[in-house]
Write a structure and sequence with these properties.
Number of helices: 9
Largest sheet: 6 strands, mixed
Strand content: 15-25%
Helix content: 25-40%
Length: 386
Amino acid sequence: MFDTSPLSLAQSLLRCPSVTPAEGGALALIESVLREAGFEVHRPIFSEPGTPDVENLYARYGSGKPYLLFAGHTDVVPPGDASRWRHDPFGGVIDGGELHGRGAVDMKGGVACMMAAALAFIRERPDFGGSIGFLITGDEEGPAINGTVKLLEWAKARGERFDACILGEPTNPNQLGDMIKIGRRGSLTGHVVVEGKQGHVAYPHLADNPIPSLLRLVSALIGKPLDHGTEHFDASNLEITTVDVGNPAANVIPASARATFNIRFNDRWTPESLEAEIADRLREAAGNHVRYTLTMEPTNAVAFLTEPNDFVGFIAKAIEAETGIKPKLSTTGGTSDARFIVRDCPVVEFGLVGQTMHQIDERVAVADLDRLASIYRKVLDAYFPS
């Protein structure tokens, strides 16, 4: 018989060294706990040439509608130099009212709270009439190829259809209850290479320096805003992330120069329309004088929004009831696996406070684990009224 309190589950998960792509025992633990509670559990492994095999978990309790899905991941980033941690990063040590360990916040703590809430709900209302599921990957912190995308495809092929999903990523910047994520910006990366002609700096008329031309093109990319934001999103943002020449000699004009940029874009754009805008800006700036190439990387990170509906309302009310805080509905931050889940059902992200995620001494307040589990339980009570 497992102790299914949020703290005990989180502590057990933290003691599993599941650094991407290693399963580390985390999914095996979840499988055992959920099977004991009556869930049907599957552990599909997905592969792709050039990438590591990844273990995943899918579990369902019930067969009726509506179907509420909890989603998350048990893989974690490497701890780095373990000697710099106050406690063993895979020790699950409690110190000063906080649980320490890699994944405490991102996001084994959130997974533990989801499990604790669902198991308590099922114990009290085993015949609630709907379905509760778990979609847990081991590939969120890695390439995200053999994880959630393929797990969703696998589930769909089995005939599974979800009505709503809660993803337990750490969404709160300062305190539990601050923020719900109802969408995410997209991400698009591009590369510009300007071709010149190498030569001696003392004879510039025999060369063609590509650097001034590259600066002209870069200025065109950042010279005016892409937009001014939309109802639920901030303005799209283009950042130049590298400018490279690779020239070790101070007396040589280089043959080429390149720049890389990344755009975090809102729901005004698609990757295709954004690429067209970038191409137009570069073409206008280059005229007939600059020889350049533009290469855009493929992306699976497209801007999306879950409209503030009853489901979002259930979560917001549960948060306010537990914490006294009215959460902000946000679309800020980086990408998450929600960008894949939204293709199948509305998805909302809410989890722990993210201040220490990926850091040395990652940790979570024990009290926050209890409160987050209580919030998830309140959502279940509202979503499946008796």
